Structures are given as structure tokens and as C-alpha cells.
């Protein structure tokens, strides 16, 4: 809850578990069981998740430098000073002085969570510093945070104080879809009404006049983009999805209809292997597209015991992404 409460002090987790959460739990369990000595727990996972789990196992072993890594759940309870609720980390290496959490899905900010875990570890081990690792197995990425006791206490108490304050107010953020209060949240309702007011307002302006007025003021441009993104995500997309569902169910809605196209044809590995018996490697590679991603290439080389030729890995043009940031 720490990352969510750091963004919105009144966040309440919605009930139930999504398919993505269940997948993350399964990968996490397989990694921890493997670290605890089980021979091949990753074989219980779907084929596409096995590589992520194996990378997580290898990474935890590398981070430990050969020291014992504790992954048994009964030894991973995190009693954080200032919190009555016990947390549970995914891995601890006491000799190397680190605690780790395994994450699937997008790369998000988990600094507050790792600060709380590190503080609990320092409390238990009479230490004045500790490292928190976030192991993102899908992206094959590790983000590490070095905390002193003072830093971990300050970071943890900041969001605890905000979440327990009688003046706590909701703050729209990326975790709104996971909050039990989303539908009746005052902040989201007010933001939605403001977005609708912008859409409905008419004063004989032309589109060119409106665009030029917004473009002339960076603050107006920022506010417009923020409201548009909110309206698109919280109002437009759900309504368009509902429109599609109702049309699919047979309801007639003026001006719209649904159409269905045939699914894309594909061929599985056995048929490819049979058809490629008499062709060269080059012909087969070009038939399959001729390229693979950098991470896939490294994984391919590792599986075949071949040293990775890093000079062969090329990078495409930089990708520019629009990202909303907090005002300081």
C-alpha cells in the first residue's frame, strides 16, 4: 500500500485480484521456491513466464554474492515502526544487508515500500544502513535504493503521517483504477465535471481561436492536456467500450454498428520445423522477420551457451513519450 498511499493519502484497495496480479503472485512464488531449494518450480508456470522467473532467480543469486538469501514467507515478516500492519518482503540477504521485492508488469515507483522494508530490517538487525532492491522481472531491470536509518524513517513517516491525517484529501493519480472509492471519489467527480464543462462551453469561438489561445499560454496548454487525458480515460473510453458491448449484444444505436474481421492466421513451431528441414538458417531467419529484440537475443545466446556479441545489438530512433509530472 505504501506507493499508493504516497500518491493518494485516502487510497483504499479494491477487493479481488486481477489476472495480472495472479500472474505476479505465481511468478513470485516460483522464484522464492527455487531460491529455497526446489528443483524446478518454474516448470509450473506458462512457457511465456518461465524466462521471467529464471531471470529473477539468477538476479537474486547475483545480488547475494553467494550469501544465503531467505525467501521463506514465514521469515519475511516486516514489522515497520509506526505501522500496526505487518508487511511481507520477497527476499532478504542479511549478510549483504539488502531486502528485495519482486515485481511484474510496468516499472513503477516503489521507493516508499522499500524504505519501509529497509527500516524494518535495520530495526531487526541493529543496523544503521540497508539496501532495498526492486527486481522487475518482465523488464529484466533492478532498481536499488541505499537507505540510512534516518532516510528510511523520514520517507516512511511522511506517507504514514499524510495517510493518518484528519485533513487527508483524495488526489487523482495512476492508482485510481485500483481504488475502492474511485466511482464516488470527490476529486475525480470534480475533475470530470470540469472536463465536461470544457467540452460543452460555447461562445462563438472558432476551433483555430481556441487552439491558438491554449497554445499561447503554457499553463493553459498543460491544464488542457491534463483534463483531456482524464476525460479520455475516465469518461470517453468506458463509454465507447459500453457502446461496443451494447451494439454487439444487438441493441440499435443510431450512427454506429460493429463489424467483425477474421482473425490473423498463424503457424506453430512444429509446422515451422517440418517446413524448414531443407532450407538454410538464413532463409529461415528472414522468413521469421529477420530480427529479434536485444533482450530476446541475449536470452537466446544464453540458452545456447553462446557469448553475446553486444556490438551486433542496434538501437532504433529514440521514442518520445508524453508524461505528466507533479508540480513542485
How would you describe this structure to a colleague?
Helix content is 46%, strand content 9%. The chain has eleven helices and six strands. A four-stranded mixed β-sheet has the order 3-4-5-6. The mean pLDDT is 87. It has helices at residues 2-7, 19-35, 47-64, 111-125, 149-164, 186-200, 207-215, 218-248, 269-275, 281-287, 294-304; strands at residues 77-78, 87-88, 91-93, 98-103, 129-136, 141-148. Among the domains are: 2-164, no CATH class; 185-248, no CATH class. The protein has 328 residues and is α+β, with helices and mostly antiparallel strands.
Portion of residues in beta strands equals 5-15%
Distance between the termini: 23 Å
Q: Low-confidence parts, pLDDT < 50 over ≥5 residues?
A: none
Helix-and-strand structural type: alpha+beta
Number of helices: 11
Using only CA atoms, what is the Rg? 25 Å
Give the integer mean of the pLDDT values: 87
Extended strand count? 6
Across the major sheet, the strand order is 3-4-5-6
Query: What coarse outline follows from CA principal-axis ratios?
Result: globular
Largest sheet: 4 strands, mixed
N to C succession of SSEs: HHHEEEEHEEHHHHHHH
As a percent range, the share of helical residues equals: 40-55%
Short description:
The chain is an alpha+beta fold.
Amino acid at each position: 500500500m505504501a506507493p499508493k498511499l504516497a500518491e493518494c493519502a485516502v487510497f483504499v484497495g479494491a477487493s479481488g485480484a486481477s489476472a495480472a496480479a495472479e500472474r505476479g503472485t505465481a511468478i513470485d512464488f516460483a522464484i522464492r521456491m527455487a531460491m529455497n531449494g526446489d528443483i524446478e518450480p518454474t516448470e509450473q508456470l506458462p512457457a511465456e513466464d518461465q524466462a521471467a522467473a529464471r531471470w529473477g532467480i539468477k538476479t537474486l543469486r547475483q545480488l547475494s554474492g553467494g550469501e544465503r538469501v531467505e525467501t521463506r514467507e514465514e521469515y519475511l515478516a516486516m514489522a515497520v515502526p509506526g505501522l500496526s500492519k505487518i508487511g511481507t518482503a520477497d527476499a532478504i540477504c542479511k549478510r549483504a544487508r539488502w531486502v528485495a521485492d519482486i515485481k511484474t508488469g510496468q516499472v513503477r515507483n516503489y521507493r516508499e515500500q522499500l524504505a519501509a522494508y529497509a527500516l524494518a530490517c535495520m530495526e531487526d538487525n541493529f543496523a544503521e544502513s540497508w539496501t532495498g532492491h526492486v527486481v522487475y522481472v518482465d523488464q529484466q531491470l533492478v532498481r536499488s535504493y541505499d537507505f540510512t536509518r534516518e532516510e528510511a524513517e523520514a520517507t516512511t513517516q511522511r506517507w504514514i503521517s499524510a495517510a493518518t491525517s484528519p485533513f487527508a484529501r483524495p488526489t487523482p493519480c495512476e492508482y485510481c483504477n485500483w481504488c475502492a472509492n474511485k466511482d464516488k471519489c470527490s476529486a475525480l467527480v470534480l475533475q470530470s465535471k470540469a472536463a465536461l464543462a470544457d467540452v460543452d462551453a460555447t461562445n462563438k469561438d472558432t476551433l483555430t481561436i481556441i487552439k491558438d489561445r491554449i497554445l499561447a499560454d503554457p499553463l493553459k496548454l498543460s491544464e488542457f492536456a491534463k483534463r483531456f487525458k482524464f476525460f479520455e480515460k475516465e469518461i470517453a473510453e468506458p463509454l465507447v467500450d459500453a457502446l461496443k458491448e451494447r451494439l454487439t449484444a444487438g441493441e440499435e444505436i443510431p450512427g454506429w454498428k460493429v463489424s467483425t474481421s477474421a482473425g490473423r492466421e498463424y503457424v506453430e513451431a512444429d509446422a515451422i520445423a517440418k517446413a524448414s528441414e531443407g532450407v538454410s538458417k538464413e532463409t529461415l531467419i528472414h522468413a521469421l522477420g529477420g530480427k529479434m529484440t536485444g533482450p530476446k537475443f541475449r536470452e537466446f545466446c544464453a540458452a545456447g551457451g553462446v557469448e553475446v556479441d553486444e556490438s551486433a545489438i542496434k538501437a532504433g530512433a529514440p521514442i518520445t513519450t508524453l508524461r505528466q509530472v507533479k508540480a513542485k
